[in-house]
Amino acid sequence: MSDQQAKLSEQKMKTYRVQGFTCTNCANIFENNVKKLQGVEDAKVNFGASKIYVHGSTTIEELEKAGAFENLKIRDEKEQKIERESFWKKKANIKVYISAILLVMSWLLGEQYGEGHILPTIGFAAAILIGGYSLFIKGFKNLSRFKFDMNTLMTIAILGAAVIGQWGEGAMVVILFAISEALERYSVDKARQSIESLMDIAPKEALIRRENKEMQVHVEDILVGDIMIVKPGQKLAMDGTVIQGISTLNQAAITGESVPVTKTVGDEVFAGTLNEEGLLEVKVTKKVEDTTISKIIHLVEEAQAERAPSQAFVDRFAQYYTPAIVVLALLIAVVPPLLFGADWSIWVYQGLAVLVVGCPCALVVSTPVAVVTAIGNAAKNGVLIKGGIHLEEAGALKAIAFDKTGTLTNGVPAVTDIITYSGNENELMTITAAIEKGSQHPLASAIMRKAEENSLDFNGVLVEDFQSITGKGVKAKVNNELYYVGSPNLFEEVHGSIERNQERQIIEMQTQGKTVMVLGTEQEILSLIAVADEIRETSKDVISKLNSIGIETVMLTGDNQRTAVEIGKQVGVSDIKADLLPEDKLNFIKELRGKHKSVGMVGDGVNDAPALAAATVGVAMGGVGTDTALETADIALMSDDLRQLPYTINLSRKALMIIKQNITFSLVIKLMALLLVIPGWLTLWIAIFSDMGATLLVTLNSLRLLNSKE
């Protein structure tokens, strides 16, 4: 969020949706017009999200008057979104049809009576007035303020063409410019649909039970604590916790993951997800504006408003470029006739053509459409990129550091090996789980989960005289037999020593980065249970992909060196740093930035917050339901899936490539057209086609980002 938007949010602010923006320049004009309205203290337009934030008091009617130059439609943010007019039925486009018909009729009359005849001249003049009416109003206002933009340049060029008798070409310029603007508006709307599709994800009403009565309630009126009833095939309208029922939920709309997730009592569920099977009763835990999908939409809209570095460069460049074009056109129009006695009409015509060629449309639109499209596409694929600057920086990363626990690994310990020396494996596992039920150690929960997976009834086992042995394990009686569960060190104390074969197996598993727990009696060791934080299935593949595209990968962990080295080898990272405290991670990121300018950090967004902040790009795992991840990171992987990381880097690199292509192409095509002035070949037709063609091509090139997938 910019400083101005932060300042606005602190005070009373109203948000409105806007329909009809064609370009960033029009958005800036509208913003300035609103600032001048009575009762308005400040205003800020978000072009990417088609919104305006107004601080102060005004009405929708007043706002629409301020946007009348572009026929903007305004709605309160909370109202239903504005119905889109058909491309062919838009008022601005209808004027183009009338002008085009008049142009064709006037051309036919010119063929019959001659170009200088009064009838075709009247027809061309009518086509210019009807098609260019709104353009001229903006152009004359700008001229009166000595403000030079594309409207000013076009107004001078068209009127100049009429003055030197080129009525037909003047009318053609008007129509082609209007067509260019209409297609540009269509393309920008297409880019915005990515964010609008997010807004449509969650329903606007839900079936709520209050005081044993069921009723349909609008999301704005749903309260925290209400019970929401969600039938199979329905989408959830609010975030909450399941209090009754079991079902699978498709979370693809929020996380980008295609595989449905099973939810049961106690599980957290999110607005916008689809209930596929069972009936669920959900206790609402957040207001509509605080739901995860609302936060995602808000953050994406803010991100689309943030200017990327390349956009800031283009905007600064255009400030000097446009006046320079006006000066160049003036020199071309007057120097040859004044100094060399050349024909005035020829060189004034060339000067007017230079004005049209120099129109900065393509240059100005080259970056924002690409940024808006890429960020919207990423959001639909479960990646939240919080600004154009982070989009660009992700593509320039040279090294990425990964937290181990919960990032490269699942973050939950699991039983990996069971070795039995005496008795039945299931019986021994049942006894171990029954004893560990009384322990608070994380490894105990791993053993109980394994027993549950194997359908072992450890809850029915009577455990007596349970006693914790601090730092070593536990002991308890089962069926009047005393059992010990704990570390190998505990059994060295109990037995005096461990058999060589058993010790070899323990060391072997420990070398693999596993923690070994032992079950035994005072007489013998019955079984070994190895527990480890398992590597994510996707980690190895993701690290391999990143290494293959030239990114150095580093694993950072607070775990011991032996475990870290084993896991680091398995996933294939370039470097491993173990035994790190949070401040050590922070210092290492700073050190890495000294070596590579652009460094990414991937973590869970909580204990890794300092390192995430210190990195060029901080990437948080599992943004869904995690406020810290959404707030601290520059990029959040919503589905907790590392595979979204290579997709994000590829999307960023593609966006950067497209932005560079757009800027280069728009400048090269203008330069080529300007060079036609030297032999005197530049015509208004060529000028408008080069400008219109460049604008359309850079916009369509940007829209290729809509098709970027994992």
From TrEMBL:
Origin, by domain of life?
Answer: Bacteria
Residue ranges annotated as coiled coil are none
Tell me its EC number(s), please.
7.2.2.21
Task: Give the CC-aspect GO terms.
Answer: plasma membrane
A family per Pfam: E1-E2_ATPase
Give membrane topology per the record. Answer: Multi-pass membrane protein
Q: Which keywords does this Swiss-Prot/TrEMBL entry list?
A: ATP-binding, Cadmium, Cell membrane, Ion transport, Membrane, Metal-binding, Nucleotide-binding, Phosphoprotein, Translocase, Transmembrane, Transmembrane helix, Transport
Q: Which transformation does this protein catalyse, written as a reaction? A: Cd(2+)(in) + ATP + H2O = Cd(2+)(out) + ADP + phosphate + H(+)
Subcellular location, record wording: Cell membrane
Locate the HMA domain: which residues?
A: 12-75
Q: What are the recorded GO MF terms, alphabetically?
A: ATP binding; ATP hydrolysis activity; metal ion binding; P-type cadmium transporter activity
> Which residue ranges traverse the bilayer?
94-110, 116-136, 320-340, 346-376, 663-682
Alphabetical list of PANTHER family matching this protein: CADMIUM/ZINC-TRANSPORTING ATPASE HMA2-RELATED, CADMIUM_ZINC-TRANSPORTING ATPASE HMA4-RELATED
User: Which family does the record assign?
Assistant: Belongs to the cation transport ATPase (P-type) (TC 3.A.3) family. Type IB subfamily.
Question: What is the name of the protein in this document?
Answer: Cd(2+)-exporting ATPase
